[in-house]
Task: inverse folding
């Protein structure tokens, strides 16, 4: 599969400009992806660069999908469906996590918001026509179950923040909650935290948190950034008050229950006929349902041989 067969030279230049705007240094990420053994379907940048709060030492998180060879799919043994690589190039730490296309499609259908963000990431390193075919039906895959995904992810990050007091899990908690709220309200995936702060009623101190994360190392603690421990009076304490309200706004009822299975919009209740009683009619008495016969014939009863008469009792010696 050739490099970016669906993209023109102008599109490649635009993609490179978007990557630079996200804080990615001059590294040929396309060449890195092309070095992989299996043909890549797509590769995008995720993590702190996608979320809008990358630090000076943030690594580059590449996520994507690839095509396994036919010989690996028709064999007797199940091939490895996920490839994970970590390396350093030109002073930049990178990691690549790529799923086989079949597994990636299954994850999409399981209402996994993480892979949905990877698929729709604007930080595109490698693309193909199959990538475009995957992104086209993405809006129809949004369901109320994605709210559970984001709420669960936010809970995990919040517990990590309470344990370590680092700034990164605190930002991840707020980012995940706001992304989920934005998704349930508008049906669009927006993982970029600075953009979310302008579109939603985010905490007023959030831009200061983002600036502290960008200026410091990736593992900067809240105390080192001047924000204190989770129980402190500043960001941790205020986030503790904000988080329950944000989680409550992340309501699964905002989206249909499944792709193509949305309920009709709510409308006024039908008018009650004049003189109709408000009391519901009495229920008919319940009768025991007849027991259903088994689907197979009962075996005929067979009498066994007559029992032998008891023998004489022996006295103990």
Result:
């Amino acid at each position: 599969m050739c490099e970016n067969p669906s993209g023109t030279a102008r599109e490649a230049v635009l993609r490179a400009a978007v990557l630079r705007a996200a804080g990615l240094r001059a590294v040929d990420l396309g060449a890195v992806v092309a070095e992989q053994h299996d043909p890549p379907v797509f590769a995008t940048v995720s993590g702190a660069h996608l979320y809008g709060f990358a630090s000076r030492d943030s690594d580059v998180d590449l996520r994507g999908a690839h095509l396994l060879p036919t010989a690996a799919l028709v064999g007797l043994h199940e091939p490895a469906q996920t490839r994970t690589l970590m390396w350093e190039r030109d002073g930049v730490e990178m990691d690549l996590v790529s799923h086989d296309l079949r597994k990636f499609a299954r994850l999409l259908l399981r209402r996994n918001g993480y892979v949905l963000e990877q698929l729709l990431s604007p930080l595109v390193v490698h693309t193909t026509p199959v990538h475009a075919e995957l992104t086209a039906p993405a809006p129809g895959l949004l369901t109320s179950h994605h709210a559970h995904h984001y709420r669960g992810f936010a809970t995990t990050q919040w517990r990590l923040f309470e344990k370590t007091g680092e700034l990164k899990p605190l930002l991840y908690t707020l980012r995940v909650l706001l992304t989920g709220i934005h998704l349930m309200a508008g049906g669009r995936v927006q993982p970029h935290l600075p953009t979310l702060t302008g579109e939603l009623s985010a905490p007023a101190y959030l831009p200061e948190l983002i600036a502290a994360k960008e200026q410091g190392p990736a593992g900067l603690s809240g105390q080192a950034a001047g924000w204190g421990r989770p129980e402190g009076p500043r960001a941790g304490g205020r986030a503790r008050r904000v988080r329950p309200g944000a989680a409550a706004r992340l309501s699964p009822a905002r989206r249909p229950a499944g792709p193509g299975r949305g309920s009709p919009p709510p409308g006024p209740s039908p008018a009650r006929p004049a003189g109709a009683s408000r009391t519901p009619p009495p229920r008919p008495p319940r009768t025991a349902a007849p027991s259903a016969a088994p689907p197979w014939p009962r075996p005929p009863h067979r009498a066994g041989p007559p029992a032998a008469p008891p023998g004489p009792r022996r006295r103990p010696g």
User: Anything to note?
Assistant: Residues 9-139 form a domain with the Beta Polymerase; domain 2 fold (CATH 3.30.460.10). Confidence is low (pLDDT under 50) at residues 1-6, 228-233, 259-273, 288-302. Residues 145-164 form the longest helix (20 residues).
